[in-house]
Amino acid sequence: MDSLFSGDGMRRRSFLKLVIAAGGATAAAAAMARTARAAEAEVYPSKFTFAVMSDVHYFSPSLYGDNEDYVTAENSDRKMFRESSDILDKALADIVAAKPNMVIVPGDLTKDGERVCHEEVKEKFDAAREQLEAAGVNTQFYVINGNHDLNNHNGKDFSGGTAEDADRTDPSEYKGEIWTACGYADTTAYDLGGTADGSLSYVAQPCPGLTLIAVDTCKYNVDAGDGSLAQETSGHISDDLLEWVCEQAKQARAAGDVVVAMQHHGIVPHFGYEPVIFGEYLVDDYERVAQAYAEAGISAVFTGHMHANDIAAATYGDATIYDIETGSLVTYPSRMRMGSFAFTQDGDELSCTLTVDSHDLGQVTLDSCGLTAGTQDIEGYGKERTLTVESVQTMLSGMIVKPLLSQYAPRGAKAIVAGLLPALGGEAFVGVTEENLNATLWGLVSSRLLPQGFDVAIEIPDVKPVGDVRIYYNADTQHVEAWTVTESADAADVTMALPDDASRQFASELAQVPATMAVEPGSCLLYISADTFNDFLEEVYDEIDAEALSADGQEKVLAIVNLLVSLLVTASVDEAPHALLDLVDFAYQDHLMGCETTEEWATTAIANVPALLPACVAAAVNQAFADQQFVDFATSIEFNLRTLLRSDVPFIGSIAISVVAGMMENVKALLDTVADMAGLDLGETLAGLVSGLELMGEPIPALAQNALSTLCHDDNVAEDHNFSLAASATIPSGGSDGDEVDKSGLQQVIDQAGALDTTGASQSALDELSAALVLAQRVASNPDASAEDVASAQARLERAIKAVEESKRGGAGGNGGSGTSDDGSSNGSDDTGNGSDKLTSTGDASLIPVAASALGGAAALAAGLGVRHHMNAVNLDE
Fold first, then answer.
1. Of 288, 380, 649, 808, which alpha carbon lies 20 to 30 A from 124's?
2. C-alpha dihedral over 61, 62, 65, 70, to 10 degrees?
3. What is the pTM of this model?
């Protein structure tokens, strides 16, 4: 990077970083001297090239095992894990061939944060950098973490035959041991010693005229419930971090830089329904963040996470910001980006044209992790592996069905129903508990679902051998009652539905004497009371617990779900035939590729989704109900309607109960009987229910149609591949003629700090020296700094130097002088345990350049880092 600067190339810059070369205090002092020298002009590169690879999701071949657990894991995702090593090798080979000045990676370096995966990706990056250096190119690699990279309990080692926990990676290891050279050296860190969400953020100046802000948007301090920390898919930016990012951007803009950022989560929706169905792929409160970025002067943000090659923009007043998302290497179409910043200077005006293009990896040889595919066009190879029946089944089972069963099955069917009804049933089930569930359901059936009088009763005609029957709730008796209305014209045979030969014989004999045993019109033949309803439900809960929620039962439930999913996604949406899965896969892949161009069949199918989806559901349900797998399962869940029904009519009442109970002994028989009696098509009935349900505030068919449509139609930036963006900045003039503030005294003190031997100084004194030096450098490079600003910064730095000297005389580890700002507030050591004191104890890089002595260089102290969280203690108005 130094070759891009003139000898005095940093004088006009706001203090964005502390630049330290290896070699301890000598190198530190040289860097400070270079920073301090006045320069009339900065040397901007005519073109600064870069590559972007995102969502690498590298899976180490050492973790692979050809076993059932791995197959389940692979089918639970849309990513090509076994292929990831070979794909990354090809991407890096293309980077070496292109010789860019910079490579940025906006997160998800690993499959699931496995330590060995981080280490091997870093080794591959190092090897590529060595090849580039051999070719005469000093390529800088900058990374930021993604939601998969830290504290991830999904990281598994399959090599032993089953899935075992792999060694995970925490924030301290990430930036202090593995990725130090790819963003945490020669940069300004937000919170170098911290481990809180956001603490991995930093600012870099890859070349004159360009500032890169890497923002850690991930959540990795979630309580895992076992004493450890875990991660989440969604992302956020705290108020403090957002303020810091914007302050860094404003400083860089004031110093004449074009500013871009890099983070994992998006800040602008990349398709219309992304906030609705995939909100976790945007940072929380994304509109507030996007507006703050835009107004702070950030021109573009490089993002990942959603795996799409898409560019979107948002405008706030006169400020527009671009979200440049790059797809995943391990998901169709397996592309990265190449681009450049082209600088031109006209007097004090610096113009920059940012150009990005989509880069096709082409042919990739796939021979890792047992692969025998040979050399493949990776785009076509991935296209066949995006969404399959097996992957959809496994994802739904793994993400929804299994977690629900695991969470709720131990509680039992009654507790499950009591827990779900308030969420699904609206006001009718507010306050439902396991204790009052049966009473609530009885109230629903008796007072809401059934008519409240004989005259408005549900009438079932010609129920043999009793004639027409009316069913309603009788408020006087508080029973659900079935009354006969007319005498049957035919004493029909009712034996066919009874359960055994003896019952059939008995019923047949009784049916032969209708004159003596007939029920007179206007009789209550059957009734259900609150007590019998309660007893019946308790039996049903027990039966479901035994047959559906036991270990064997859960496997049956999963099998039925997989059957339904398979039948649903393979249902035809046209005569081609294209299946429903083909439509979803097309829309999804269309968005992943970018520059969306839909096809006629897909446009037609999406327009017909409100009708197609219910038809697909109906066909799938009817096929599933007829499948022997479902028949066996539904038949196994039995119940006894004799517990539910009562009659005060001699003989015929008993026969009626036996008939009804015999007709509906299990779930399958119940469904068949209800369908026959009511003339229902069960598939169409359930499809109608699904169509009426709302999800995310919309009827399900409308939600599906809108999501598919917006995936295929880009109403934001249409050109997602070959894209150019113009940005400009004003180069500070260095002060008005005849009115320039004298900063020579301040510069002398800065030089003194650069040459200071800090061996034996206390940590608190070093912390204050770091903060005072940051402020002094910023004031020295600020053309608008007043004489008062200069005097204040100089005085504070002189006090800090004095405090270092005094702490050395007081002995190592002494408190030393903490230093104070002009307003008397303390700017001393950080006793929270989240700051720089951790670095000293772990042997990581020193906090400030002047602390890196020549002897300390061998102990990894030479790569001094500027810690931004100390700057937060500085009064920026000083």
1. 380
2. -70
3. 0.74
